[in-house]
Specification:
single chain, Nucleotidyltransferase, domain 5, 5-stranded mixed β-sheet
């Protein structure tokens, strides 16, 4: 079955055609970074309008690139949760119209489950059950995937997500949005200059741990500690080395995530770890995840950088398994800004 996938949960508009949940026929994604950069972050109203202007054209381009006819499309899948509500409604409404006009089923896809499904595209042999970490600008979740569609959230952030923290400290440092890639570059230079242990000693930052919920995370206090140190240096005239700061911050985020990964793996018998989301593109986190997998003897499924960001191929992949499980969405189905709002939660 060929699925048309649509992704519009934030500031990337994407359309893709995927066969049987695994084989990509075409992916067309349009980034809005240059539009939102001047504002220092995503402006929801502008993002929604841009999705409206581009989603139809991207879908047409995907069909042409795949070399298929529209009548070859067997179903449509689109993100309907979580994300910016206006952006979600734009893409999901287009998907409804496409499904109706083509006379094919519609699948409503959880964006987080889509990030997990990105691994299916990169690793055709991967099958549930497995442990998953989805880490992005909007969400940080530890998930147990029992089946392709039955997933249990084991832990989540109590405040900021990891990617959100990266963006906020980048803004304080005067780095244009999105700041993750530049922080990654600075951190690498900082590790080369100071070494990991010295960077942590010279620029100490907190690493919260919750005894009552070991897989929950928190990045707000870490972000605040960083910002307070930055402002203190500004006010007192002390030297603030961005290489040192970025290296220490990146290491702290890694410590928070890796400590949870190790705790979860010690209690999981699947021996498989899937990692997805935009923050999974961070070079230091990828390095540490590979080290953890080797140390613990688990199989790590970490998609290439091209599949870490938002894209419609991962949505089409997850949508395929939703339909196989009999989860067909009605045209009356709504979109939801948060997982808490959505019927059935995750």
């Amino acid at each position: 079955m060929i699925l048309l996938g649509i992704e519009s949960s934030c500031d990337d508009t994407s359309a893709a055609l995927v066969e049987d949940g695994r084989r990509i026929l075409a992916v067309k994604t349009l980034s809005q970074i240059d539009i939102h950069k001047v504002y220092g972050g995503v402006v929801p109203e502008i993002a929604s309008r841009k999705h409206l202007e581009t989603v139809s054209g991207l879908a047409e381009e995907a069909v042409r690139e795949a070399g298929i006819r529209k009548s070859d499309i067997g179903a449509v899948a689109a993100t309907n949760r979580p994300g910016l509500i206006g952006a979600l409604l734009t893409g999901f409404s287009f998907a409804k119209g496409a499904a109706y006009s083509l006379g094919v089923p519609l699948a409503a896809v959880n964006h987080i489950a889509g990030h997990v499904a990105a691994a299916y595209l990169a690793f055709p042999e991967l099958e549930p059950p497995f442990l998953a970490l989805s880490v992005s600008g909007g969400n940080t979740l530890f998930i147990k995937a029992e089946t392709y569609t039955r997933m249990c959230v084991l832990g989540s952030t109590r405040d900021d997500a990891a990617g959100e923290a990266f963006d906020k400290i980048a803004r304080v440092m005067g780095i244009p949005y999105p700041g993750g890639a530049e922080i990654d570059r600075l951190a690498k230079a900082g590790r080369e200059k100071y070494g990991v242990e010295e960077a942590e000693r010279l620029f100490p930052l907190p690493r919260p741990w919750f005894e009552d919920a070991p897989l929950d995370t928190s990045f707000s206090g870490l972000k605040t500690a960083f910002i307070n140190t930055f402002h203190h240096a500004e006010q007192t005239g002390e030297e603030f080395d961005p290489l040192l700061a970025a290296a220490s911050f990146t290491e702290a985020v890694g410590d928070i995530l890796i400590s949870r990964v190790e705790w979860a793996l010690s209690r999981d018998d699947s021996r498989k770890l899937v990692v997805g989301g935009g923050v999974a593109a961070n070079s230091r986190l990828r390095e540490r995840l590979l080290e953890t997998a080797e140390k613990t003897g688990v199989k790590l499924y970490m998609p290439p950088l091209s599949f870490c960001g938002d894209n419609a191929a991962m949505i089409a992949s997850q949508g395929y398994y939703e339909l196989l499980a009999g989860r067909t969405a009605e045209l009356s189905e709504n979109a939801y800004a948060s997982l808490e709002e959505a019927p059935g939660g995750f």
